[in-house]
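tool_log.txt
---
The assistant was asked to compare two proteins side by side. It first ran the structure predictor on the initial sequence, then on the second. Raw inputs and outputs are pasted verbatim so the downstream comparison step can read them without reformatting.
(1)
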Amino acid sequence: MHYHKVYWEDLGVKAEISAFTPEGKVEEFHAILHVEPRGELFEGQLHRIYEGEQRLSGLPQVSGSCPILKRYFLSDSTNQQPLMRQETECAVSAIQQPPLDGSKVAVWIYLQKGTQVANAGGMVVAEHNGYRHLWKMGMHEHKGDSAWQTESLLINYEEALQSFHATLAGNCIRTWFFVRDVDTQYAGMVKARKENFKEQGLTEQTHFISSTGIGGSPADTRALVQMDTYALTGFEPAQQRYLYAPTHLNPTYEYGVTFERGTVMEYGDRAHVLISGTASINNKGEVIHVGDIVKQTERMWENVGKLLEEGGTTFDDVAQIIVYLRDISDYPMVKAMFDRKFPDTPRVFTLAPVCRPTWLIEMECTAVKERHNPSFRDF
């Protein structure tokens, strides 16, 4: 993994970039853009972020690549999302998870070079070498409680997958559930997801799907849950495996939730390791170091490190990190810890309560590692 940082002083925008660029193969990039507040209203900061995106596309490091997804982290989604431009060339998600650097907006962008990218009825498809990568983002409903909305979202998503001869159970690799007022609404989401998964044949005897379930507010004030998804077609079952790290973590179904800790997708030339939202938990499902943000952060790193190791990777292979904090006052200390441990890895810190009130911090990440798997097609 190669890391780059670019700062455009006139814009007050910093781009943190990771690049996986094997010669003659599909290239992948993750970029996280941060904007200095400069005392501006949202529209001014957003304009500078958009200009930063434009300049990003012209950098030699990412030249010729196409955006696959963009996730905007907003400080006030209800008032800000209507001011954003409509984009169809890539999958776009916007969620109220305020950036903790004092700005009103930040963005994570995933780009590829060497694939064919198209929007097919709201599903963004990146196609190459017999694989179709399917991204559908920003899904939400505006009626019912969190359980009804979750069930409706999953049913609609399953129907969308059918157009690509895909199923949730067989092809969905990663989900994100953003839950308004997570301390009270999370239980409904969990219940509906568990029931839907059972109907689809996803049980503790089969497998679940890697996921992050975290606090976040959709722009529509009636929406209690927003869902982002990634699915894949064209792979063999042997290419996919799940991560458990049993010395440090327990199966999620033991405490009533239904997601995998992490997923590895093996290709001929690389592996993707997708780590779900991970916090300070032990292999009995217990929150540990209650009330201590430093020790919770360190245990979270330990847990993620074990998952990465099981996936045949290390933190040196991580392409991007999203950090979720419950208490804004913990940001300076946590940022300093991450700056020391991961000085180059693209990351964003957001205000987003974790699904248990005693968890102060959670993180997710993606790693990409070179492989030589002659049994599988290249990415």
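(2)
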Amino acid sequence: MPREAANTATAVPRAARIVAVVLLGVCLGGRAIAAGGEDRSPEQYAVHGQLSYVEQEADSFAAPYRGANSLTPDRGCETVDATLYIGKQLWSGAEGWMDAELDQGFGLDNTLGLAGFPSGEAYKVGRSEPYFRLTRAFIRQTWDLGGNGEEVEGAQNQLAGSRRSDRLVLTLGKFSVTDVFDTNRYAHDPRGDFLNWAVLDAGSFDYAADAWGYTVGAALEWWGGAWTFRAGAFDLSDVPNSPHLDPGGHEFQAVIELERRLELLGRPTRVLATAYQSRGRMALLDQAVAEGLASGTPVDGSSVRSFRSRAGIHVSLEQRVSESVGLFARIGGASGNVEVYEFTDVDRSIAAGVTVNGAGWRRPRDTFALAAVENQISAARKRYFDAGGLGLLIGDGRLPHAGAERVLEAYYDVGAPARCHVTLDYQRIVNPAYNRDRGPVGVAAVRLHVDF
């Protein structure tokens, strides 16, 4: 697995805590870094930034046995990341962006132990010391095709300006598949809303990515009236869950998405249908189990990998109920007898949630939200884990009593001055890693975040 060896029982160094204290101080009293007034005139260049700190703790839970990828009771972790977003207009309709990021810290058990992992701020690569990554480097070209004019606000990875409602958009370079596909205004940003992986994105969406969640590829979007069609092609990792991409399209993923915008009961509604197919060196799970049993060796999918495909599809809904309340839902599935390649160990997933703005209790900058998720795996994947196989994130050494992994997540976000946020988050996970012998697990977190 592409994880650096680390004693995750040891807290992240004092530097992380110092950053958190500074961040909190800025949020509570620092107007100095607050952004100025909004300016929607065309921008020639822009610089944005963000700083986030998450501390997360798992409680004591039943754990009669454990394997290499099991979650540990009474374990905590911290993550810190700071990002600088630099954008420039290149020519008419084109903008280029580079995102430089500094990261430090670990997810619980080095991002292991749960299919619906509880922190979207934790990468699969953790380090005790700060390290630098160029997370994005891409060009976005927009061709106006007519329709109504729209104002575009300046934001991270978006220059202020204007555009037409009917347009073609090409994104090319290094970015995340989920920058373009499977987006949702209520559940998609681990720095601003939910933290659980299976709430932020469809759990069954095994999207192309390195161990940090980014890839190289291209996406084309056609916007016309109430419809949008998207298609993209992206590099897979060289092996499942790797920090290194396989360049040149030797192992790749194709993604398509159809979006429909409409009104339901006079309120905006957005429906997405997303499908993907990955083509790479993957193992058939039943074949891996059979080989292990025949040879008397541990089950290892890497020994039976060959070129094959894994496909999946999911549908998502985004519904505004009122000015203060929004709903979302996702349901999806993917091939169950092929090893998961990039994201997490889920074959079927259904998620739904609600987000409520605090205006009703005179706290318009605050947000309360609640989401529920059920993740499931196929019979073939159950046999694989019961035989001792390891997935991307899970593997308790055996799985004699399998069940659906269920997640309930709630958070309260306090909107402090100067674009700062303090969030309290709690997750209750039943049958962690699909194992009814372990858990349930309670995971509490505090998140401090500022944009500038």
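---
observation on (2): The two ends are 35 Å apart (CA to CA). The longest strand covers residues 127-152.
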